[in-house]
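Weekly structure sync, notes
Attendees: PL, DS, HV (note-taker this week)

Item 1: Alkaline phosphatase
DS walked through the input record. Source organism listed as Danaus chrysippus. Sequence as pasted into the shared doc:
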Amino acid sequence: MTPRNQEESQPEFWIKDAQSAIEARLRYVKATGSARNIVMFLGDGMSIPTLAAARTLLGQRNNKTGEEAHLSFEMFPTVGLAKTYCVDSQIPDSACTATAYLCGVKANRGTIGVTAAVPRRDCLASLDKASHLKSIATWALEDGRDAGIVTTTRVTHASPSGAYAHIANRDWESDADVIDDEYDPQTCPDIAHQLVNSYPGNQFKVILGGGRREFLPNNFVDEEGKVGRRRDDRNLIEEWQMDKIARNSSYQYVWNRDQLKSISNDLPDYILGLFESSHLQYHMEANERTEPSLAELTEVAIRALSKNKKGFFLFVEGGRIDHAHHENFVELALDETIELSKAVQRANELLSEEDSLIVVTSDHAHVMAFNGYTHRGGDILGPSDSIGDDNIPYMTLSYTNGPGHRPHDSVHRVDVTGDEDYRQLQWRSHAEVPLDSETHGGDDVAVFARGPQSEMFSGLFEQNQLPHLMAYAGCFGPGRHACSLADD
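Item 1 (cont.): predicted structure, written out as tokens:
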């Protein structure tokens, strides 16, 4: 086992660290106000080079040179950096990071909502309730606020699951996955089951994303002809509906954009929207009739949650930035980043800076390089102005590893600009090391904030401090709160 500080297995270590960081910031940050509403946007895999390339693409789409452009959240007044390592891994995945930025405690790679005392895939270790962590969504609910999740991935995927799940393996999205790892789902319930039948997921007012297959039996065909994955013969969508009936609450399940639009003028108490069997389609490939944009999902969620006068916590993920990078689909990755920017802009328009904190960040980096000596305004998706010493061009945006690798001889690389599918949406930028899936990077990620106490998000900090900082600004959850300063 990798040597580590054993104290890191205890949640108190990370909570104390976060609270100490808040105290340290208070010595030099002059922040004011408190947040009734908090929206956390996550660009999954949105590295700093991804931000620079996406803003350039955005500018070039608007017939500018591009480099001078900016994404919506890059205009926020406060910027910081977060360290993304997890307890057992130098370079993290989306599970241990979700546990950090939503539960406030760093954990092991592949685990969600449990402390580092739980190794990945150890069902029995995860049964210890002392290892279960509360998320900032739970803190908000306990304070009488509402909570919700929005994502372009499956709602049972690693990032959104950090808001509600306690599980030893991020891959246990349905009972079939638990069974395949030779565990009993009655002992260790899968993620979809936890979302529908356990606290806090069963209290979320808004759940919007993909992943119908994780909720449906494997003998059930959904609205788009896709088969479910569950082996327990349970239809969790129906169970979600029955639970809302038992609460005597209004509710609506929707599976396409038209249905979502149809309820937008009279939003029910609870909304479950599952728009694909698996992940939502990439924006540039999506069927606009059936597939809502991330900005549209965000607007519905904010309007629904705003009915609670005490406020809310909302998690919004642009999750397919990560997927495109893993595939070396560089244009799709940048476009998904621009879509996240649009969603942030919509939230910025809907929510007052006086009482609503918006935080935008990423969970981890990727290994896309922004390189070469291209002239100002050069096509960000094209080759660099310079060429290799082998007289072969290379792309301004390339990868250090991934499926875009082209084998080459001892002298020459492949000239990728000669590919038959060059510059098509699913053309892969070249990669140095051959891998089926490109890896994450260990870089720090950017954090942007606006609204009450946004100044607290400056500097360099551990990723697990994020929910503590947000809760500090919102005056709920554990530890010190901004509202208490008046009493000091």
